[in-house]
Design a protein that fits this description.
By secondary structure, the chain is of the alpha+beta class. It folds into 2 domains: 134 residues, no CATH class; 88 residues, rbstp2171 (2-Layer Sandwich), CATH 3.30.2220. The protein has 12 helices and 14 strands. Helix 8 packs antiparallel against helix 9. It is globular. It starts with 5 loop residues before the first helix and ends with a helix. The structure holds zinc ion. The site of zinc ion has 8 residues, from loops.
């Protein structure tokens, strides 16, 4: 399920829906971390979080232990697909700035910053590199590749902590929008699964949470997110405007690059990219 919305692009429900995948994740967390791996536990956020007027750009993560593995495996077995990611972040993140990493603070982080934390937890737990096994798109041979976590391109917010932006729509309407946060992603994934929603319906939910307001050419402003009629407002938008908003959300996302890391086949020199997804980070080690 690949769409223009970053919710559906990387959501744990689609990455981890298969029970087999889930099982592989758990199995591969079994090997004990190497004691000689240097643990760099400070994560620089790609966007950052503004709290009480201060922009926080650093977080601290830690190596996952057996107790964490048990908690994460319990979450994975629960019926909520977003619980796996949430529990992983809650167990592996110690602090955001100088504050304890509460579920509430983790939920306020934009999706890209949560991805930065996942990278950090991966690094603290398994070390600097990820081993991929893939099939060459050129010659069909199986190839193994090792990707250093520092090779993954990271997009940073041009202005640290800035999560809001404006998008001009048709007929002179200007939408004030904010980047997708963890709490938005969780809500949409949860509702999409509970209600068996289509992508269009999930997009409506995402927009209803991320579009703060719509301002008409006359200057009249209609608040959207948090309003009773937020979903109605997003359903009433034209298709082109919805597509524009979803594309802006996608384009402006920060954190690890969606395109992935280029890998060149040693036999035929074909180049392909491997994506850094949740399952890639915690399936193989
Ligand atoms: Zn090849």
């Amino acid at each position: 399920m690949e769409t223009h919305s970053d919710i559906t692009y990387r959501n744990p429900a689609t990455d981890l829906a298969a029970a087999a995948d889930m099982q592989r994740v758990l199995e591969d967390m079994n090997p004990l971390p190497q004691p000689d791996v240097p643990t760099d536990d400070v994560v620089e956020l790609a966007c950052g979080l503004t709290l009480d007027g201060q922009v926080i750009t650093l977080a601290r993560v830690r190596e996952l232990t057996g107790a964490d593995e048990e908690a994460i495996s319990r979450a994975a077995l629960s019926s909520a697909p977003e619980a796996f990611l949430t529990t992983l972040l809650e167990r592996g993140t110690v602090a955001i700035g100088d504050r304890p990493a509460t579920p509430d603070l983790l939920g306020q982080l934009v999706v890209g910053d949560r991805d930065m934390l996942l990278l950090g937890i991966r690094r603290a737990t398994y070390g600097e590199s990820i081993d991929y096994e893939l099939t060459c798109g050129g010659c069909g041979q199986k190839l193994g590749a090792t990707v250093g976590l520092d090779e993954i391109p990271i997009t940073k917010s041009p202005v640290p902590g800035a999560t809001e932006f404006e998008v001009t729509l048709k007929r002179g309407v200007v939408a004030r929008v904010r980047l997708t946060r963890g709490v938005d992603q969780n809500a949409v994934v949860h509702a999409a699964r509970a209600g068996n929603l289509t992508i269009a319906e999930a997009d409506t939910l995402l927009l209803a949470r991320t579009v703060i307001s719509l301002r008409g050419p006359s200057g009249a402003t209609r608040p959207v997110a948090g309003q009773m009629d937020a979903e109605v407002a997003m359903r009433d938008l034209g298709l082109a405007d919805r597509a524009t908003l979803l594309e802006e959300l996608r384009k402006r996302r920060v954190g690890p690059d969606e395109d992935g890391v280029p890998i060149t086949c040693a036999s035929c020199a074909h180049e392909q990219k491997v994506q850094v997804t949740l399952s890639a980070l915690f399936r193989w080690n």
